[in-house]
Amino acid sequence: MSDDTLAVYSDFVCPFCYLGRAALREYLADADDPPAVEWRLFDLRGYKRDPEGGFRDVDDGKDEDYFAEARENVARLREQYGVEMQSFDDVPEVDSWDAQQAALYVRQASPGSFDSFYHATMNAYWRDGRDIADSDVLADIAEDVGVSGAEVRDAVTDERLEAELEDHFDRAQRRGISGIPTFVSDDHAARGAVPPAHLERLVEGA
For 5-204, CATH number? Predict the structure, then answer.
């Protein structure tokens, strides 16, 4: 990553990542010298993943009050940024691993299509309520951005890509990324769906 690149750690199933993307777009549109943006994958729910499939119940301190507050914050930011977005209760609860593995494949096989695939996948989940754990859905998204759907179907079962993706997540944790979205510029970071002015200070004051 070059010095003038803004890295963004995020996960497709994170509502604040979707909202943080809207804030980022506002900042980039108004910036005199906008930085390049590098989207980095992060496994939001990995600590709850059951090796046998699905997610385990984990005491992570996120009770009903936490989720009620989160819903209120999502609704407030959705209105603030004017984004089209489904509610928590209207999107399927899915494991984003396969979608992220597909994104990793697209980054390697068709780098010029990565951003389009990334944003289309996020939109498919939060705007359209599609099941992005479904390989057919991922294949459709890929085809829409000019990437082979058949290759993406194969990618989500590729053990080499699986190992690489796990290494990506491990490296993020070693760098101290513990929540998302996290925006990193130089040696400075901001976490959460922070407003455009905060991103401006992060990048231009870094």
Answer: 3.40.30.10
